[in-house]
């Protein structure tokens, strides 16, 4: 990478597309085909930036996974040497790694399922409430959605604080419950459940608002017809609403899986930058391996395995998006 | 839940329907209370006198309003430096992202060319790579380029997650503008560029504003890259908040004041654009 590449990316290209030769408009074509070079000129800056800060690092991630790369390689004292599959065998042969994989999958699955189910229920509820209630719920949802993740994380830390957290105080007012001083983060499962709550709280609004937009597109006549044919509320939902919403649901679910497998700041900040072994998920595990143990090779191998785990989900998402992209 | 729902749907009589409506409203208010509570508690704590914040039996209602926590938050550590840096980075990312993204969005929505589909797949695929997985090579790349601990390096990396999203959303807005308008302008003697500048661009402006604001929010909220690619002395606002502690340990009242200062402008911006964004994102998503 030369310096020239970076300077072009840093300065916003103010280039206007060159004035194309005068074209005779052909209203019949689906898309006009200007000069063959024009679209590529328009795309060039975007593709350049993505190639530099995404494409190249992605390639580097793969090569790093097959190298021994530690402190001395970082400072350039020693060249990075290729070690074949050593990083992978090291990672895959580690019992702790498999615990982390399972923990991550369970955590992400929990987040996705709760997000989608709660989101769907709230979207359906919003169809049935009065206007003013709808407005109130929307305000609460958008406020939660717009909250920076770090802010939300610190707020949840405060809500669940062992000594002065409002949650322990309120729960302790219930007869027979004594939770003042209860540390929610003393055990991994309990702490991760709190973090799951935080992730779901932040993710539900987007799902609700997108599904609500989708629900307005479900023709009322269809639902009415189903009801006349004797379908109950569940039947109408199952056989009319759901099939129509399917593209949106597929899109939201795949996005949620990708986001929830990539959760990092929530765990990292909740545990003050040093997640304990019981809190490690793939992202924090890879980070620790690279930046705490300074084994960048193994850290990259773990990150690469994470990406590979997601490939199937990504394929589904892409198919859906391309279908949408074709509807033009 | 479904039992209630079916009962409500079968309730044919007017009074039954009204009763079920108020039942739904109650449920809606419950959702409002639960979803809004963390935000409320942040504000409540931020404006509380500090001694009330560490009451083991706190009152759920506001106890009194004071701005002490805010002044404490501003004085505990440099606040304006990180905020200024976050602002600079976010604005630069949006300025570059919208110009570059706009050109790319035009290319994929208004031109038929060989390789168009591959480009779309590529741009979408980039969005799918978890950013966390990329931090190691990105860190090494910036190290090699001499861009570690420089805001320009952070701006460059933020473009990776702003661009795909910007291109895709703007594409949604452009597709919604009828081609016939451009064609009519061209029949009237506009060049292709002229038709775009005079016809499409004005119609696109609201969408561009919404996309910019959303991109700004994304950049402002980012944590991991800001943490890893800048040193302590150049930290951004999110990192500032996550490091918030005093010599007495974590003081939650000023911390919530800091959180409020970071979140309020963002939530306000978000309220302005979210409706528009939802429209852009779902453009063409539902076609019966």
UniProtKB/TrEMBL annotation, chain A:
Domain named ABC transmembrane type-1: residues: 101-317
One of the GO BP terms on file: transmembrane transport
PROSITE patterns on file: ABC_TM1
Location(s), subcellular: Cell membrane
Membrane topology: Multi-pass membrane protein
Biased composition (Pro residues): 15-25
Main location: membrane
Entry keywords, A to Z: Cell membrane, Membrane, Transmembrane, Transmembrane helix, Transport
TM spans (from-to): 40-59, 100-126, 138-160, 192-215, 236-259, 296-318
Residue segments, region Disordered: 1-32
Domain of life (superkingdom): Bacteria
GO cellular component: plasma membrane
Family: Belongs to the binding-protein-dependent transport system permease family.
Protein name: Sugar ABC transporter permease
From TrEMBL, chain B:
GO cellular component: plasma membrane
Record domain ABC transmembrane type-1: where: 83-273
Keywords (A to Z) from UniProt: Cell membrane, Membrane, Transmembrane, Transmembrane helix, Transport
Xref: InterPro entries: BP-dep_ABC_trans_perm, MetI-like, MetI-like_sf
BP GO terms, sorted: transmembrane transport
CDD domains to which the protein is assigned, alphabetical: TM_PBP2
Compositional bias per record (Low complexity), positions renumbered to this chain: 1-14
Highest taxon, organism lineage: Bacteria
Recorded topology in the membrane: Multi-pass membrane protein
Annotated region (Disordered), positions in chain: 1-20
Compartment(s) of residence: Cell membrane
PANTHER family: INNER MEMBRANE ABC TRANSPORTER PERMEASE PROTEIN YCJP, MALTOSE TRANSPORT SYSTEM PERMEASE-RELATED
Similarity annotation: Belongs to the binding-protein-dependent transport system permease family.
Name of protein: Carbohydrate ABC transporter permease
Taxon lineage: Bacteria, Bacillati, Actinomycetota, Actinomycetes, Kitasatosporales
């Amino acid at each position: 990478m030369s310096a020239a590449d970076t300077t072009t990316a840093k300065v916003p290209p103010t280039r206007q597309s060159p004035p194309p030769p005068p074209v005779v408009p052909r209203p019949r074509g689906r898309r006009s085909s200007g000069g063959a070079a024009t679209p590529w000129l328009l795309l060039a800056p975007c593709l350049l930036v993505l190639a530099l800060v995404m494409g190249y690092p992605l390639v580097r991630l793969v090569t790093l996974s097959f190298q021994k790369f530690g402190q001395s390689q970082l400072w350039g004292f020693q060249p990075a040497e290729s070690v074949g599959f050593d990083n992978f065998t090291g990672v895959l042969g580690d019992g702790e790694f498999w615990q982390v994989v399972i923990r991550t999958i369970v955590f992400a699955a929990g987040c996705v399922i709760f997000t989608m189910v709660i989101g769907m229920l709230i979207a359906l509820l919003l169809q049935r409430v009065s206007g003013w209630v709808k407005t109130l719920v929307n305000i609460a949802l958008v406020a939660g959605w717009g909250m920076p993740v770090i802010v939300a994380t610190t707020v949840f830390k405060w809500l669940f604080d062992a000594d002065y957290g409002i949650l322990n105080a309120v729960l302790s007012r219930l007869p027979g419950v004594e939770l003042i001083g209860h540390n929610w983060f003393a055990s991994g499962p309990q702490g991760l459940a709190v973090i799951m709550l935080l992730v779901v709280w932040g993710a539900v609004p987007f799902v609700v608002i997108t599904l609500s937009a989708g629900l307005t597109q479900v023709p009322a006549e269809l639902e009415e017809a189903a009801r006349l044919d004797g379908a109950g509320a569940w039947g109408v939902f199952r056989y009319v609403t759901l099939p129509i919403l399917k593209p949106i649901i597929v899109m939201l679910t795949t996005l949620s899986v990708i986001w929830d497998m990539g959760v990092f700041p929530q765990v990292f900040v909740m545990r003050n930058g040093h997640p304990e072994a019981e809190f490690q998920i793939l992202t924090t595990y890879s980070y620790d391996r690279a930046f705490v143990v300074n084994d960048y090779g193994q850290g990259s191998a773990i990150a690469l395995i994470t990406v590979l785990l997601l490939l199937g989900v990504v394929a589904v998402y892409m198919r859906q998006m391309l279908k949408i992209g074709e509807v033009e | 839940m479904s039992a209630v729902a079916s009962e409500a749907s079968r309730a044919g009589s007017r009074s039954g329907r009204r009763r079920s409506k108020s039942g739904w409203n109650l449920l809606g208010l419950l959702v409002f209370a639960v979803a809004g509570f963390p935000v409320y508690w942040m504000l409540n704590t931020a404006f509380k006198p500090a001694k009330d914040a560490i009451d083991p039996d706190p009152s759920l209602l506001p106890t009194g309003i004071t701005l002490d926590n805010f002044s404490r938050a501003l004085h505990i550590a440099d606040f304006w430096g990180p905020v200024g840096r976050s602002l600079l980075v976010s604005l630069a990312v949006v300025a570059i992202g919208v110009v570059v993204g706009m050109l790319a969005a035009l290319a994929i929505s208004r031109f038929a060319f060989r390789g168009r589909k591959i480009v779309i797949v590529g741009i979408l695929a980039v969005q799918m790579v978890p950013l966390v997985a990329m931090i190691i090579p990105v860190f090494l790349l910036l190290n090699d380029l001499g861009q570690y601990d420089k805001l320009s390096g952070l701006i460059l990396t933020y473009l990776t997650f702003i661009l795909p999203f910007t291109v895709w959303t703007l594409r949604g807005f452009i597709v919604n503008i009828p081609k016939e308008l451009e064609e009519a302008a061209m029949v009237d003697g506009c060049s292709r560029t002229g038709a775009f500048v005079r016809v499409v661009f004005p119609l696109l402006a609201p969408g561009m504003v919404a996309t910019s604001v959303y991109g700004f929010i994304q950049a402002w909220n980012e944590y991991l890259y800001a943490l890893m690619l800048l040193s302590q002395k150049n930290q951004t606002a999110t990192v500032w908040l996550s490091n918030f502690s005093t010599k007495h340990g974590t003081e939650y009242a000023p911390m919530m004041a800091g959180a409020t200062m970071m979140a309020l402008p963002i939530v306000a911006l978000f309220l302005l654009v979210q409706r528009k964004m939802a429209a852009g994102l779902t453009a063409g998503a539902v076609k019966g």
